[in-house]
Design brief:
- The complex is a heterodimer.
- Chain A is of the alpha+beta class.
- Chain A is 47% helix and 12% strand.
- Chain A contains five helices and four strands.
- A four-stranded antiparallel beta sheet of chain A has the order 2-3-1-4.
- In chain A, helix 1 packs antiparallel against helix 5 and helix 3 runs antiparallel to helix 4.
- The longest helix of chain A is centred in the middle third of the chain and has 27 residues.
- Chain B is an all-alpha fold.
- Chain B is 71% helix and 0% strand.
- In chain B, helix 6 runs antiparallel to helix 8.
- Chain B is globular.
- The chains are: A alpha+beta, B mainly alpha.
- Chains A and B meet through strand 2, helix 2, helix 3 and helix 4 of A and helix 1, helix 6, helix 8 and helix 16 of B.
């Protein structure tokens, strides 16, 4: 999303009010920037729940399955060692490593998916060019409307955001 | 439970100012860095000596093949557990109130403790340059690790624990690193923290995946922390030695690990709270929570000690009875046993008092004793069992050498050095989470 109209709020509640006002005006291409996750904001914008869990589940199952298979192959097929007549395929003895590899692969998947799905690493983002945006990680709440939104009306939306309590509204559309 | 978890009503900006400003500030810590630095140099000299001359520099020998190396390994890895317990288990149980503000701190502790722990089994191999033999790789000799043995389990558990702890810690850090980046006064610092923050801006797109990932990782770390010390305990329980061969070991070890870890949390957090003036975010309620958890784990431990004695008697096995009922309480190393009982079970009874639980000084003193007691517990389990096995002809006393003592002391210093660097370079109280909590508490 390329932001064209951005607004800065002093509190999370005012930000939510701003989002509601824009939603009422039919704006759909919207993003927010907050110092912490604001409860209820996600539902307000209508962003679906993250699919990350399914990636983690798949990675975990894959890692665990591969670990079990590898142990079986080592112990039964490629390098069978008779130790006191105990069975080569000792399912119970394979549990610890299977479990650990499940967690390890799932953990890696969770970290990498969180970074990649969030569009990171991206050391430069258009919003970083906005003066004062650095407070978005400290104590200011930002929202922006994307350039692709057909319902965008600069005058009307600026007024709506100011009514909602925006500290300031910035037009970014003229930037190259 | 009406006590506040955040004292005063700090604004988001005030919290950021207070908690992010701890990074990269010149402090008069030269002495602390010098002492831990010298200790670290000593540690690595002793390690070099061990590698050059061989494992004979240590006090272990047959029958006591596991001396300080394994005692210190178990002790350090146990300490890590409280960190994951606080940051992951309390998050999954939705106890953010008492968890936030100390979790980053304890995660750091976990990480550095596991680093110390990992060193010992590597060196204990005698030829640490062959450590990769523990992991399955297509060797030209066509040999694979024996996965029915507890040692490859251990390698998998400890390395997974280290990696997942790093991931959990780093994921939690990202928003705060961005905070440090955005209030950095110099361009260089802005760049360095900016790179580690990966360009985090706190957008909806980022938060919505991030929060799920963080919770998922916490959920994964929860069974992991229980598994690690269980698997460590299986190194013992899988053996047939009297005093080791017991089904009580996994829960017994996990409780002891969390107990010792909480003690170290107190040992670190009480001074840090003072130095950084964190009284508003680390409140008596946090201390109270840790005190209660110390009491609970101490009780589980006391129960386990009694069970060990009872099971030894109930088994009717001569060697078990000799080991548990005679050698540990009245044998050559009996003094260690009684100090252990005093530190781990008796003086912890003071924690029934609310005043003790809420006094930073009292907790700190108790924690030091618990750290000693838990180290001695591992000493008793390992040394007494090995020096008194089935054949009296093979009985032999054990004493550590100066290299053993130097390495143990050196790991304290190395841990301290890493921790000091952590306090200096990284925001060690999770600011973004604290702001969220503040909003929740304020309603």
């Amino acid at each position: 999303m390329t932001p064209v109209l951005a607004a800065e709020f002093a509190t999370a509640d005012e930000l939510c009010a701003g989002v509601r006002a824009l939603a009422a005006a039919g704006i759909t291409e919207l993003d927010t920037w907050t110092p912490y996750q604001v409860e209820g904001l996600q539902e307000l914008i209508g962003v679906p729940r993250s699919k990350l869990r399914w990636i983690v589940l798949a990675a975990g199952l894959l890692g665990g399955g591969a670990a079990y298979l590898l142990q079986w192959w080592i112990n039964v097929v490629d390098y069978p060692l008779d130790i006191g007549g105990r069975p080569y395929h000792s399912a119970l003895a394979f549990v610890p490593i299977t479990f650990e590899m499940t967690i390890l692969c799932a953990g890696f998947a969770a970290l990498i998916a969180a970074i990649m799905l969030g569009g990171l690493p991206a050391l430069w983002q258009p919003m970083f060019e906005v003066d004062g945006f650095e407070r978005a990680t400290i104590d200011r709440f930002w929202l922006a409307i994307g350039a692709g939104d057909r319902e965008l009306d600069r005058v009307r939306d600026t007024a709506a955001l100011e009514t909602a309590g925006a500290v300031r509204v910035v037009w970014l559309g003229d930037r190259a | 439970m009406s006590d506040p978890v955040i004292i005063g009503n700090p604004t988001d900006a005030a919290l950021s100012d207070q908690l992010l400003s701890t990074t990269w500030v010149k402090r008069n810590w030269k002495l602390a860095f010098a002492i831990t630095g010298i200790g670290t140099v000593m540690l690595f000299s002793m390690v070099t000596l061990t590698v050059m001359r061989g494992i004979g520099m240590w006090g272990n020998n047959i029958p006591t093949a596991w001396g300080f190396g394994i005692i210190n390994f178990v002790w350090w890895i146990g300490i890590g557990h409280a960190g994951t317990f606080i940051s992951a288990i309390l998050l999954v149980l939705e106890q953010q109130h008492v968890r936030t503000s100390i979790n980053r701190f304890t995660e750091g502790m976990t990480l550095f403790a596991v680093v110390q722990a990992g060193m010992f089994p590597l060196l204990h191999l005698g030829r640490p340059w062959y450590a990769y033999w523990l992991f399955p790789y297509p060797s030209v000799m066509g040999v694979w690790p024996q996965v029915r043995s507890a040692l490859p389990w251990d390698a998998a558990a400890v390395s997974t624990y280290l990696l997942v702890s790093i991931m959990f810690w780093y994921l939690g850090l990202i928003p705060d690193l961005a905070g440090v980046r955005d209030r950095a006064p110099t361009k260089l610092r802005r760049r360095i923290y900016g790179i580690f923050a990966l360009g985090w801006s706190g957008s909806m797109q980022q938060w919505r995946h991030y929060k799920i990932a963080y919770l998922t990782l916490a959920g994964l770390a929860t069974p992991l922390v229980v598994s690690v010390h269980s698997i460590v305990s299986l190194d013992f329980a899988e053996a047939g030695l009297p005093g080791w061969h017991s089904t009580i070991f996994p829960p017994f070890f996990v409780a002891g690990a969390i107990f010792s870890g909480f003690a170290l949390v107190v040992t670190l957090i009480v001074p840090a709270r003072r130095v950084f003036n964190l009284y508003n975010v680390i409140t008596p309620r946090h201390l109270d929570m840790i005190g209660k958890l110390l009491l609970v784990t101490s009780s589980i431990l006391a129960y386990s000690y009694i069970c060990e004695l009872f099971l030894a008697w109930w088994s009717g096995d001569r060697f078990e009875m000799f080991e548990q009922l005679r050698e540990r309480p009245f044998g050559f190393y009996a003094i260690g046993f009684w100090i252990m009982i005093t530190c781990n079970c008796l003086i912890t009874q003071l924690l029934w008092s609310r005043r003790v639980r809420r006094s930073a000084t009292a907790l700190f003193v108790l924690a030091i004793f618990i750290n000693i007691g838990m180290w001695l517990e591992r000493f008793e389990i390992i040394v007494v069992s090995l020096t008194r096995d089935f054949l009296p002809s093979s009985w032999h006393q054990y004493a550590p050498t100066y290299v053993d003592l130097g390495i143990l002391l050196g790991t304290f210093c190395f841990f301290g050095l890493l921790f000091l660097a952590f306090l200096r370079l990284v925001p060690f109280v999770p600011v973004a989470e604290l702001k969220e909590l503040e909003r929740e508490v304020a309603g």
